[in-house]
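Can you give me the bound-state structure? Components:
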Amino acid sequence: MSTQASARVAGIYEHPVREAPDTSTPQLHADVAAGALRDAGLTFDDVDGYVTAESPGVLSLADYLGLEGLSYVDSTDIGGASYVAHVGHAAAAIAAGRCDVVLITHAGRPRSIDYDPGHPRRNHPADAPEAGFEDPYGLSFVGLYALAARRHMHEYGTTSEQLAEIRVAASQHAQHNEHAMFQDPVTVADVVDSPLVSDPLHLLDCCVVSDGGGAIVVASSDVASDLSRPCPAVLGSGDAIKHHGGGALDLTDTGAVESGPKAFDDAGVTTDDIDYASIYDSFTITVLEAIEDLGFCEKGEGGEFVEGGTLQAPDGDLPFNTDGGGLCSNHPGNRGGVTKVIEAVRQLRGEANAEVQVPDCEIALAHGTGNSIGTRTGAATLILGADR
Amino acid sequence: MTGERPVPVPPTNPETEPFWDATADGRLLLRSCADCKRVYHYPRRQCPECASTNTDWTEASGRGTVYSYTVTRRASEEYADATPYVLAYVELKEGPRMLTNIVDCDIERVEVDSRVEVVFDDTGSGRALPRFTLRVGD
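Here's the bound-state model for the whole set.
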């Protein structure tokens, strides 16, 4: 069933905080919930659907926020892609008549709880079937993405300089975002000269670690029609999980191979129609593989594709992550999906920072990549259309 | 690895214990599906390819090539003092790609497609962690 235009994004809010030592995680959820509802012109009483992915959980947070009369709840967790997926799920629930106003919240405080920046061992729950075959080897998130980057370089000749172009574009955008953690533009040389964290990925190939959060309100078109804010339509969505396959894992592609076509088919558009793309950027390689897998270029040609300012707004062929993305601005709670949706909505409303606003932005894509492309990964692609 | 390399005790369950028991004898086991002939890793009763439970253990040659690798230069917990060390996927001769470390060699010599063979690091708990080292000769 197509979700086309029966649901709209009515409200968005990104917490401006990047370090919140004196705030609880539920407080951040409450802040972003209130912010997104205020943005929409709605109240907590209007909410009949609630979605959040991770700890402390949807039950606990529905209680904390005082949400009553919920007829739709979802706690789908596919890593950082979750909050992109949630918008599609909410739209489907609205299309099915389950609810009218779905509140989606995300928050977390890895920076304040002394998360080792990007380099933790990955600890599975003890009953995870893969735990014994992965955890003893000193895995880290950056290490697993580095394995993908190395294999991509081996098969396709992709270079560190090409990966660096992705960080350069993000940094060009971040200089216009007063809330971005890193606002100084960087060069390709800055990236490849930054310390290697896990070969071939350098420090500047990695996203920030930030506290914060974001929220999204998805409403039925009926509800949205009474609101005064522009409400971009949910045109299409698709989810996927790509996994280890019993040892058959190909490190050079991602779940976007499946989630992308689903979303494009659902929306009835092609890559040529996309005016702006939010693409999950936990690491530069995450962006490169997703660009290929979504079909913006052929497999293996991502390195060439990102050269020459392709990703830089407003004039590049594929302006991306105009808020500075996870690489420069914000990766709240180590899960960046929510900010991908939020910046896409800003673009479609014409409310991105002026220097990076894409002119006449009609159709935007938001893509999430969750957990690790080095083992098992979630993917979610969302296509939104301007409210004109 | 530079310092003493960590040998964490792997979590096990009833489904995976035979794999770990075999490591004490220096044997690397894989699972093989009698129906679709797929050989797979990590071990589990149900074939990830065809969902058959007509599967059994099979002993691997312990040889393979590096499918991908990374030199980890920053790490935490017990690996914090073991940097730089090599995390890798080894493609076993039998087919499956398994996560592991490349050890007991000059890490600058590790490349994609390097030939490797298994070594077993005693965890001190009666079982051993399969890792790989660069193979010389045939």
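A couple of observations. Residues 41 and 70 of chain B are 21 Å apart (CA to CA). Chain B has a mean pLDDT of 94.
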